[in-house]
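Exercise 7. Given the components listed, write out the predicted structure of the assembled complex. Treat all entries as one system.
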Amino acid sequence: MRTFRGAWSLAGLVAGGAGLATSYAVANVLAIRDSPVVAVAELLIRVTPGALVEWAIGTFGDQDKPLLVGGIFVFLALVFAWAGRIAARVWWLAVLLLGTLAAVAVAAVAIQEAPSPVVYLPIAVGFVTWVLVLGLLTDRLRAAERAEPEVSTGRRGFLIGAAAVAVISVGLGALGRIFGGGRRKVEASRRLLRITGVTEPRVPLEARIGLAGVSPWATPDEEFYLIHTAIALPTIEPEDWRLRIHGLVDREVTLSYQDLIARERTEAWVTLNCVSNTIGGDLIGNAWWSGVSLADLLDEAGVSADADALLQTSDDGWTCGTPLSVVMDGREAMLAVAMNGRPLPIEHGFPVRTLVPGLYGFVSATKWVVDIEVTRFDRFEAYWTGKGWAEQAPVRLGSRVDVPRSGQEVPAGEVPVGGVAWQQHVGIDGVEVSVDGGDWQSVDIAAPPTVDTWVQWAGTVSVEPGDHLLRVRAIGADGQVQTGVERDPVPDGVTGWHDVEFTATES
Ligand SMILES: Nc1nc2c(c(=O)[nH]1)N[C@H]1C(S)=C(S)[C@@H](COP(=O)(O)O)O[C@H]1N2
Ligand SMILES: [Mo]
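Answer.
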């Protein structure tokens, strides 16, 4: 054996890397939204039990997807190296192994609505690259093995070949990135867009409680939480966007972006929250939204008396079911085109998303919405409902302590406390706090202009030096008192009181 240890693994690794690079480059050049690896990651998310996805979001937050893609790459690297070693002995077995990987990628792409066969091209190109490169490199390794000990050209040839392939792969990957400027183009369109009737957010004074450290009533864009199953975000030029409203309607409607923004503008402060938000969590935000009334559009389409649901579908194939009666009851249910006075950020659903105050995001707030079917709940199963989440999910009464922070040290005596409370579309009548399990005492609440948003609260508690526990509960405008019974986010949102421990120091 004249080849060095690991040579066959290296050949496999380099060949695999080259295959990934060409498939990535082709996907980008063809402006296919997902490279095969991303499609596989999305497939994994789709087949993963809801509880595990839930855990991943809770544990890794925004990092869950980079970690998943990273994990896939590590797995691929191991398989590629292994395939190289197998190729040393049984060539066809290595091809079979990689063929299986390619088949998984094909399946992942296939289930993401494949409108044209070109979506399979990156996988085909990647597979062919892998076979060719592995063939080339292993030929040289075999030559090295046959050669006399003093002749090392075979080995040198192999190393030069491997290095050349690696360099070309990196170059192709970079070219793919340059071609893949889809997101940058849409970002540019978005920046240049001026939508008539969209006004700047103006936070009413009465909405502010005026205690430093309480979450700002209007959440800045960059602090607004993000939840989506898509890894590569849909990038849709406004002129390419269409919305189809169909199903149990008298007249089917298809709207272009121009049609949509030509309609009367509606604007509102609406707080959006995620059903996965845990007690004290930050998957909640408040923004000034501008758009078009969804109920008006549905009225024009003529909704059948049979219907009780909207099945909404996004450009990336995500779905949700929304109760029709809620959308039609006069609240600010809208097709939103702007957030905080600017066209929607791409990650928040550009160019158009839906929003229904009082419902959790997973049953209402479809980003990149392209299809609304008027239908019945007993005729479909939406994305999260299929994973154990509820069919209907109105927002639960909730509250959070922002001040003091958990673990904070404050001077003993009169200690300022504050936070937020919410039950969108019902409203908040009061907030109470309790120290160290003592009596509930009421604190001040701000007076936002609508019941569709959260409410800031603040007050003081008097404490002796030492460790303390501060707990909060809200009282809804319907008289409901927030329960202390703790429930999981699944299937329809947490209940339970938020508490923080803090230390009062001798002043
Ligand atoms: N297309 C699409 N829309 C979606 C989702 C998604 O995964 N895909 N997630 C929903 C969920 S669960 C929530 S809580 C909200 C979050 O909206 P945001 O990311 O703008 O805060 O979007 C909803 N709309
Ligand atoms: Mo959510």
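Discussion: Residues 153-179 form the longest helix (27 residues). The domain at 398-505 is CATH 2.60.40.650 (Immunoglobulin-like).
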